[in-house]
Give the backbone structure.
Amino acid sequence: MLVLYDNPASSNALKVRVLLAELDVACERIVIELTDERPDWYLKVQPSGMVPCLVDGEVIVRESNTILRYLAAREGREDLYPSDLATRAQIDTVMDALSVNVRPFLWPAESIVIYGSPDEGLWREELAEALAAWEALLVGPDYCTGSFSIADCAAVGRLMHLERLEIDLARYPTTTAMLAAVRSRPSYAAATSG
């Protein structure tokens, strides 16, 4: 039985829950509170204390994008994460660019708009540039790489607060279409219910 250490407010955990629902794979979910200090027992499983963390028997997978790759491969879902190297590289590029190039600018925006941190001013411009560069990598029309994949699970989680950031989403039509398409899937509804 899979165990997912999770929190409903975590964007990284959301992307894993979307994929689990897409795969129709049952797991035990254990909620980890997003407080400053994680319990000692959890730090033994996940030394960084970050959420999510997936335990599959003796295998512990600690990073959300790695969890997505692991689950798709575990279930033999070539449609979600193909073994074809060119297609896989395209999926990995989209996922990694979102984490490496967009997230550093997304988190400060979320911190200000959603969590009420002081506004230092430049986040809109920096985030707009990062999103434009990421948008240029997308194939579309409805999904990141042309067909639904783990990249879309990663994106719908990472960008879960995008509409709340009061930015001009018309500048990112492929991103907007992808978010709408993924959010219309039964797996997204299952991942966000309860």
Summary: The two ends are 21 Å apart (CA to CA). Helices lie at 11-23, 40-45, 64-74, 85-113, 123-135, 150-158, 173-183, 186-192. The chain has a mean pLDDT of 94. DSSP finds eight helices and four strands in the chain.
